[in-house]
Amino acid sequence: MPSIALALLVVLALAGTSAPPRDTAAAAPLRVPPAATPPMGWNSWNTFGCDIDEAKIRGVADAMVASGMRDAGYRYVVVDDCWYEPDRDATGNLRADRTRFPSGMAALGEHLHAQGLLFGIYASPNVRTCAQRTGAYPGATGSGDREVQDARTFASWGVDYLKYDWCSGGGSTRNVRVAFTAMRDALATTGRPIVYSTNPNSNFPGEPGESEDWCGVAHLARTTEDIQPVWDSGHRNEHPMGVRNIIDVHSGLSDRVRPGCWNDPDMLEVGVHGVNGYAGLTPDEERTHLSMWAMFAAPLIAGNDPRTMSEADRALLTEPELLAVDQEPLGAAAHRVRGGDHQVWVKPLLDGTAIALHNQADTPARITTGPAELGLPAGARLARNLTDGTTGPLTADVPAHGTVLLRIDHLSRRGAHRRPGTPSGHPRRSEDPRPGAWSRRGARRRRTPPPKAGRTRRGNRAPQLWGR
């Protein structure tokens, strides 16, 4: 797996956090191997909320194995909020709810590992978790100022993935960064490779997950407020979010994605129906949901109930061609080259290009693109349709709210992935913002350094790949 040196981050503690502020020393680089490709798995929240217990989690794990989800790549089983006792023990340690998780979290982790799965868990840096803050669950078991203690507890339980949720309206964005960095450093001291997933947005004004770059702080960072199983909530970036709304947010975020640092547009709502008053997505909307997340190189964390999912949902979630676009080793995210109702998105692949023909309109449409719009050589006029397997021109009949993915393979010649307006096929350096991108001359020469933590520019610039 690739090894990427990330910049050391020095942060200052500020007043005003929900937990007392603390100084954070210059930290060791994040471990890249656990998230060299976007993590895939399942999370309990979208379907169960706080209504979780050991039997449900074990049952879901068994179903993930039996259904083929595990073998398709869904490895992480993440137990979200409400798994803990409302109070810590006498020495300040977190502990599992003894009624709902009688075997304890270490035993649950052992069971998941024995199934060939990985173990994920939820925590918050503030005094209370999200469920405790809203009154949905009792107690105050946040990890603020207990990062090292809690990280050691998680490692002792065999945890492989931590979802760390800000869940407070207090403090500043720099307070959030301090708190997230403190847990990052604490996880590093355990010596256990743990994927670190953060959400700086929940209940926090300004949506810093969208406006700021969190590379170097976490392996993946949420870009939007919470998703619900709905196409359009009418919100730009506030709770709740629909699939269309999240796609719109991601139109300007492709430049910060690379192996070990992923934009997280939230968990999947494929197969989630009748939750929180929402009927759920249509089949075409579900395909768009998964297809666009794959184009974003996003984590694919299912939120349905695998024990009862339909064959159609199982087939979509495990579709090899679609998942391959997400897990593609180059680690680039798609950029939008055409907006409006009939959109075109382009994603560079290590050995080709993925194209999304995305219809946001309420009626079907034929969407057509071409090499010039895509920034490809003039001869790149045929593509494989990843839905039906046919090969044909760069066009498709796309249902309302639907998406068709096309793929052009083996673009390794000079001029591949050319941006419009650069006939030589070699983009100017300023046009290729992706950290680690090739130099203009194409050979393995100087690589550009990763960006500094902080605000990212919001343009639609895209990572490029071109041959020698």
Automatic annotation (TrEMBL):
PROSITE patterns registered for this protein in UniProt: ALPHA_GALACTOSIDASE
Key word Hydrolase present: yes
Reactions catalysed, as given in the entry: Hydrolysis of terminal, non-reducing alpha-D-galactose residues in alpha-D-galactosides, including galactose oligosaccharides, galactomannans and galactolipids
UniProt KW keywords: Disulfide bond, Glycosidase, Hydrolase, Signal
Domain of life: Bacteria
All copies of domain Alpha galactosidase C-terminal, residue ranges: 340-408
Record region (Disordered): 409-468
Gene3D superfamilies in UniProt: Aldolase class I, Golgi alpha-mannosidase II
Compositional bias ranges of the Basic residues kind: 441-460
PANTHER family reported in the protein's UniProt record: ALPHA-GALACTOSIDASE MEL1, ALPHA-GALACTOSIDASE/ALPHA-N-ACETYLGALACTOSAMINIDASE
Protein's name according to its UniProt entry: Alpha-galactosidase
Phylogenetic placement of the source organism: Bacteria, Bacillati, Actinomycetota, Actinomycetes, Pseudonocardiales
